[in-house]
């Protein structure tokens, strides 16, 4: 029998007959056990509490015999570095500390495990000479004890397969064993087992389909992937898109020598440890954009959600030159960097067929004179077809940020579309936001100009449903946000209680308080926040809009002071010498005490915006107060049902 080889952070081989290996996190609290026989599988323990029981890992290739995992060699390393984020979503200097074990097999496949103090991840790698066809990938997540999960279940569309989705759903909260094999969910999925929270997701998704999870009717989830599309048709309508009508019997054709995406589990012992977990970013491929100085995060207005329903104006509002000049003036007055020209500025099928009510030269010249940038909405299928000429036209108009929409897939060609567009925009020095698509999953590190994505049931749903409840809003920081920045588009200024709420197109209201809408600008990760409220209402409340307009969108430091999944959250973020603290609650009113001990010594001028005394009846009720605070002060804040607050601290 071979001697045991013991390192400071792992026992490389703990059972020679069963071929079992062990990997520990740097703080020794997370233990991963890898079995290479009789099949490749892994287990996860946190504080010696079993989280995952043996869960299979495999890649099935075409024209190859069944995979066997005979070990050829192992390699270990410890990394203790710092990533300096080009676009600091939640913190600028990101500690990247992990232990890594690579097991190379005789079949040209290797598995790489990394153990962090806040999660664990693995990926497969291959060294085949020729390209390969991947029939399927096996990734099981077998919970060792009864588990519950928050999962966004895909609602199958008529005439389309289950892999067509905008990745915008509510989160079902129920036992893992109650999810059937007819239920598909996109990631992240948040589970809790043995009082440990684990968010299942992926990172470094490239030239490969995204990972869905499927219920099994047992205490287990199993990965599933959209098969490769063989035939497509264009679904016509206001927003045409390509629909897969025939799929292959495989999921990907790709290079034979490559690394496959990371399968990541973000681990938290307390709820408040989840929202600031940026493991997905750390796992992603480093930036391919060497000089990112042209990337300018900030705040943007948008007119689509309110249907350009302006008032107190001397012109007829709508998609026209006068309305966009009005938005430019509003942005300039309240500290926004740019305005969005959303769907309707051009024909959806032709970016050069401009709405006759718009004079782009006039709008572009006016924006330049005010120091405001323009941003443009595009349909994904049209942008793909007109990409080179469209980007040149955007550059002539001074556009530094575009949105593209209605992809609704994450099969291999759809994933490759994102990379192709991100690279072309990087070459043109234009930021890009994808709507109607899957979460970032690390692309915002590799392509920092891919500054945010939608993949969230956000503000727009208030226009036609009652889905964006306070509970849903409080679920987001513990689920979707873990995969990267999100474009919720907060800031609705027409606010109602759930009893008063009605979905009305053109007069969109939130079913939360005004202060919860404000708090989202700090609580939700998004380096390019989009304000969806009505500027005509904003002009009647200049103090509120000046506070909102002063908020940064990138952060040097983030502290989650307190949180409970789907119930409440208090987030503190630092930008330079100033701190911004925001909180949100579900439908339950709460009294919170803010501990300011994390502040550096000194005095701070505090601006506090909180729910008014009548916010439980009139959700638009708020108060703005000014005071002086010092470190170790404690603030008492009352949150109305569906409420929130924001505190801006400027150091003297």
Q: Your description of this structure?
A:
Keywords: Calcium, Glycosidase, Hydrolase, Signal. The chain has 652 residues and is mainly beta. The chain has 2 domains: 20-283, Distorted Sandwich (Beta-galactosidase, Chain A, domain 5); 298-489 and 496-534, TIM Barrel (Alpha-Beta Barrel), CATH 3.20.20. Helices cover 15% and strands 39% of the residues. It is built from 11 helices and 38 strands. Strands 5, 6, 7, 8, 10, 11, 13, 14, 20 and 21 form a 10-stranded antiparallel beta sheet that branches. Strands 1, 2, 3, 4, 9, 12, 15, 16 and 19 form a 9-stranded antiparallel beta sheet that branches. A 7-stranded parallel beta sheet has the order 29-28-27-26-23-22-30. The longest helix has 16 residues, at 412-427. The protein is globular, with a radius of gyration of 25 Å.
Helix and strand arrangement:
Layout: E1 20-24, E2 30-35, E3 41-46, E4 49-61, E5 71-84, E6 93-105, E7 109-116, E8 119-127, E9 132-143, E10 147-152, E11 171-175, E12 184-186, E13 189-193, E14 196-203, E15 211-215, E16 220-225, E17 229-235, E18 241-247, E19 252-254, E20 257-259, E21 262-268, H1 279-283, E22 298-301, H2 321-334, E23 338-341, E24 346-347, E25 350-354, H3 360-370, E26 373-379, H4 380-385, H5 387-396, E27 399-405, H6 412-427, E28 431-434, H7 443-446, E29 450-453, H8 470-475, H9 514-523, E30 528-531, H10 535-539, H11 542-549, E31 557-564, E32 568-575, E33 578-585, E34 590-595, E35 603-611, E36 622-630, E37 634-639, E38 644-651
Parallel strand pairs: 22-23, 22-30, 23-26, 26-27, 27-28, 28-29
Antiparallel strand pairs: 1-2, 2-3, 3-4, 4-9, 5-6, 6-7, 7-8, 8-20, 8-21, 9-16, 9-19, 10-11, 10-13, 12-15, 13-14, 14-21, 15-16, 17-18, 24-25, 31-32, 32-33, 33-38, 34-37, 35-36, 35-38
